[in-house]
Amino acid sequence: MPHAATIHQLRELLARRFPVAAPRHGLFFSTGVPGLDEALGGGLWKGTLTEISTGVEGAGCLTVLNAILAASARERRPVGLIDAGDGFDPQPLDEATLAHLLWVRCREAGQYLKAADLLLRDGNLPIVLLDLRGGARAALKRIPNTTWYRLQRLAGQSAVACVVATPWFMVSSAHYRIQIQGVCRVADLDRPAEELLGAMEYQVMRRHGLGAGGGIAEAI
Amino acid sequence: MFAVISIPGFYLQAALRYEPGLREEAVAIVDESAKPARVAQYTRAARRAGVREGMSSTQGLARCPALQVRYRAPEQERMAAAALLQCAGGTTPCIEATGDGVCTMDWKGLPAAAHEAAARGVIEQLRRQGLVAKVGIAATPPLALLAARNARPVLHVKSPADLHALPISALGPGAELLRTLRRLGVRRLRDFCELPPEGIAARFGHEGLVLWRCVMGRSSRLLQLVTPPASYEEGTEFEHEIELLEPLLFMLRRFIDCLTERLAAAYLVVGALELRIGFTAGPEHARTFPVPSPTRDGEVLFRMIHTHLEGFQSPHPIKSLHLAARACKAVKEQLGLFETSLRDPNQFHETLARLSALVGADRAGVPVKENTHRPDAFRMEMPAFHAAGSAPRKNSTRGLALRRFRPPRPAHVFTMNERPASVVIGDFSAPLGDAAGPWVVSGDWWDSHAWERAEWEVEAADGRMYRIFREGEGWYIDGIYD
């Protein structure tokens, strides 16, 4: 247990010293959704904020978050989910996936930002999901831009990949902004989630400072 | 070879262990068990002011008005004695609790070249625990004790002649024997050793013979071996009650430093901390802090208690404080190069405590599904990621995820041909399009908590999909698919 930090440091040192030999997948985590991974240039980059949103409610944002949870659990990687509206439903996920999830159920506006601050500062969970889509809209509108820059800096310091699901694009410091577009009908609710996720479109609305040459590697 | 650790002024040192600043001031320890109570030990400043052993506290205060009178603290003496034995036990298993503040060690297996380094190591360990000690090393236990009492701070006696320059009073003879020896011109141990051995017993009696044999290195004895206590506890009763957090934290930091030093001597780490705070009124506050990744890191342990005490309030001042460490062996785990784990489990534990304080204890953790078909039945548990078991193989979920409304929102649903046709929530009304259902679920029919509901998946005109259900006579919106 005490050697875990050393191994993390060793991995990062190797990635810095031997950027060619180091596998690029060491710098990001797969989302479990091939289309989204492709849009993000590989996956969720460590030390960055990725914002995902949909034009309309019900287009699959929470389903994408569930896919990220399942993919991380397959890698035995713990994930933090900060649930602004306490709307996450654990029932469809299996026990093994839930065992890798730290679920923070917020009940008041502002708690989710404090919780995000704590988890990003802590740095133990490699992926932190901040689901703001269930939060009160009035409170979300009052979040100042400086808050997002602070969270981005914390994520950068602790090399945590942070995904923010928002009802509209609001994260000014996001490295990636992904618009999810999908149309589902009642009849589709019986189809496997992987099929539905595969049918969705992931449109990159913003890409900041993440060149294909691995600029993020230097940042980390 | 034997070594003796001696803590001079043991009662005084035990009482002032957590207040090292008082060592430079005039302080006297009064032994209440003696009738009448008398000064037993005192600091140098008190000695300079004329305080002597055997005085009453009133006499001491008459000589030194600034004298601080403290009473013997048996609890703290017990803890200091435990610390002494545990430190000694770090060098050899053969130790004897010879007396108050005196411990004899058999260093038979220790190479001679390492004796002095080991002695200095023990002194340093005890110093970090607030105890000033001296060590004497000699071929016999009595000679080692004599050396310890006169060490500065280590005295290695290779031959009895090394002690010949000491004054005869260093032997600690009785008052009558000391007078006799001085009358005969015996001022130093050398003079005592040069006396003809034949007449020692006749001239000085049994006491003189014992001392002579001790000085000559001819007396030895078997040690009465003891095992160092397995409990690691520090505590104190405050002279003045504490009302603020800062002095409490200051004392706790000292306790933690002492405990980690004691554990280090036994090559152990802290598995859990037990804190007890006593108040002037009301029950004491007790709390156990499990350490997720057992450690001896004082900073980590202190932070755990600090976080807890930051949010702690009491209407009564604090009169006593105890901190005990549950010792365990350090966990050695070899992780694979690409195996993931928490970087700092203790830090994570602290973050979890902060999250629980922020959102509520039952609202941060790992969700565990209950063994029932009742919708939204789960409980929250503390994360144990290292014991999370096998990884899932693939994402086996179906359809879109449901974003639940907790609690479900009541609604009016109008049906047509027994299918939902429109929904009214407050002043808002919307027609419903496609719908799937009803999916009837029920459970607990065998007792009074029986439940039954009919669920529908419906699509609103704007394309959003909801799960609604009918329970009894009412309709509810369970959540929105997202």
Characterization of the model:
The complex is a heterodimer of chains A (220) and B (482). In chain A, helix 5 packs parallel to helix 7. Chain A has 220 residues and is of the alpha/beta class. Helices cover 37% and strands 20% of the residues of chain A. In chain A, the strands form 2 sheets. Chain A has a 7-stranded mixed β-sheet with strand order 5-4-6-7-3-8-9, with helices on both faces. Chain A has a two-stranded antiparallel sheet with strand order 1-2. Chain B has 482 residues and is α+β, with helices and mostly antiparallel strands. In chain B, 28% of the residues lie in helices and 32% in strands. Chain B has 12 helices and 21 strands. A 6-stranded mixed β-sheet of chain B has the order 8-7-1-6-5-9. In chain B, helix 4 runs parallel beside helix 10 and helix 10 runs antiparallel to helix 11. The longest helix of chain B is centred in the middle third of the chain and has 21 residues. Chain B is elongated, with a radius of gyration of 36 Å. The model of chain B has no long low-confidence stretch (mean pLDDT 87). The chains are: A alpha/beta (220), B alpha+beta (482). Chains A and B meet through helix 1, helix 3, helix 4, strand 5 and helix 5 of A and helix 12, strand 14, strand 16, strand 18 and strand 19 of B. Strand 5 of chain A pairs antiparallel with strand 14 of chain B.
